[in-house]
C-alpha cells in the first residue's frame, strides 16, 4: 500500500517544443515562485507540469510519450500529481481526457490562472516581466506577441494560440529592464509573427518603434529578431538595424517554399518574384545581414518540377542559415483537405538534398571567415572547448564558435573578441584575439 509522503511539494516544469513554450514555462515558474512554491525546470519533483507542443506529428508524439512516461511514474509512486498544459492540450483536450484520463488536469494555452490555482498558487497581475529564466544567464527569449492572424494552409498555430495580440511597448520595456538587471545581455525577440507587431494596438506595424525603445535599455547588448513573416515586412526595421549597433545583423524569416503554385496553395500571400525582390532589398539595405530561413518539402501536390525549382533557388540565394522540414498533415488546417500525396521517403530525400546544398554553402561562407576577428558571446563550456556565438548566430539552431579551453580561460556569459582560425560546415574555430 502506498503511503503519502510528508515531504514538501516540489513542482517540476517540463518544457517541450519551441522557444515560445520556453517563455511560457518561465512565466509559470515565476508566478509559482512568487506564491512561495518550490519549483524546478526538468529536475526532480513530486508534482509535474508538462508544457506540451502540438505543432507537427513528431512533436505531438514526443508530447504524448512524455505524458505516458510521467503517468507510469505516478503509478509507480515516484510522482504524486501530473498536470498537462500547452499546445497539445489546447488542441486535443477532449481526446486526451478520454485516452489518458489519469492526468490530474489538462489546461490550454490561455488558462494560466486556472493552472496556478490547481497548483495552489495565485495569479499575480503585477508580475510584469517576472520570469524564472531557464536559458543560460546571458540570453533570454523575449515574446512580444501571442497568436497569429495569417491564413497559412499547413499551420495549426492559430487553432492553438488564437488571434494575434501584441504586448504594449511600455510593458516590454519593463520586462527588458528586469531581465537586464538579472544579467541578461541578449534578447531574442519571438512571436508567431514579428512582422505583424503593433497592428492591433497601434494600427500600424510598429516593430521599428519597439526596437528604438529596447536599445535604450542599459545592459542589453544584443537584440535578435526571430520569426518575421515576409508579407508586409516593415522595411523601417532595416534602417534601425543599420543604425543601432545593439540590433544584431540577423533576421529569421521563414519562407517555406518558392514555387508560385505551392506558395498559392500554402496561402502565403506572396510569389517567387516578390520574395526574391524582398531578399534583395534586405541585402542592399544591410549588406552584412545574416538571413535564416526555413523551408517545407513534400507539401501536397509538390511535383519534382516544383522541388527542382526550390533546389535551384536555394543554390542561387546562398542563405547564411537554413533549416528544412518535411510536411506534416495536420487536421483542422486548410491543407488537410488536400491529399497528402508525397510519400514519406521522398519527403525525407528532398529534405536531405536541400540540406546537402546548404551545408556546402555554409562551408564556403565559413571558409571566408577564416582570419576575421569577431565579437563572440560565450554560452557554455563543453568538453575541451568554450562554446560561443557571433551576432550572426542564434542559440541551438545556428553555427557555434569553438575556442580551445586548455589555452584560454573564458567566463560564460561574457563577450570576447575571437580571431577565426579554422572552419567546418556549421562550426568555426578560433583563438582569443590579442588586442595591441
How does this model look, in words?
The chain is an alpha/beta fold and 436 residues long. It has helices spanning 19-34, 57-75, 87-99, 112-118, 157-161, 169-181, 199-202, 207-214, 236-243, 260-266, 272-285, 304-317, 344-367, and strands at 10-15, 38-41, 47-52, 81-86, 105-106, 139-143, 145-146, 165-166, 186-190, 222-225, 247-252, 290-297, 321-326, 373-382, 385-389, 400-404, 415-423, 427-432. It is globular, with a radius of gyration of 23 Å. The protein starts with 9 loop residues before the first strand and ends with a strand.
Low-confidence stretches: 1-6
Q: What is the arithmetic mean of pLDDT?
A: 91
Largest sheet: 6 strands, parallel
Which structural class best describes the helix and strand composition? alpha/beta
Helix content: 25-40%
How many β-strand stretches? 18
Radius of gyration: 23 Å
